[in-house]
Amino acid sequence: MRKERDEEVAQLKKQLHEAQLENEILKRSRRLHTADPLHASKAMGFEFIDKHREAYPIMLMCRVLDVSRSGYYAWRKRETSEREMANEKLFGLIKTIYQQSKER
Fold first, then answer.
1. Residue 13: inside a domain
2. What's the Cα-to-Cα distance from 85 to each of 26, 44, 103, rounded to whole Å?
3. pLDDT on residue 38
4. For residues 10-42, b (16+ Cβ closer than 10 Å) or e, as one string?
5. Please, what are the averages of pLDDT over each run of 10 residues along the chain (104 residues)?
6. Is residue 100 in some structural domain?
7. How many domains does the chain have?
8. What is the pTM of this model?
9. C-alpha span between 70 and 46 (Å, rounded)
């Protein structure tokens, strides 16, 4: 009887810990969930996972963010597209112009 109760307590502690991690992930990823659905993308979820992969289990983040693990790993292997490089270059230019305008 005691062994069964100890096993149940251990299982409940494990479930509680996982629920706490899920809650932290949801709090940290809030901007993904509140973003305009047209601008939110799987890539944003993958970027979040990549940024936090040392803090949380990848499998758990994929489940909470509703993305596939295989999709995440494929995203990591994928080379940067020409469009992404152009966007990064444009973003850098916009940032520079914005900083220059603040200095005036």
1. yes
2. 29, 16, 27
3. 46
4. eeeeeeeeeeebeeebeeebeeeeeeeeeeeee
5. 91 94 88 57 87 94 92 90 85 88 78
6. no
7. 1
8. 0.66
9. 11
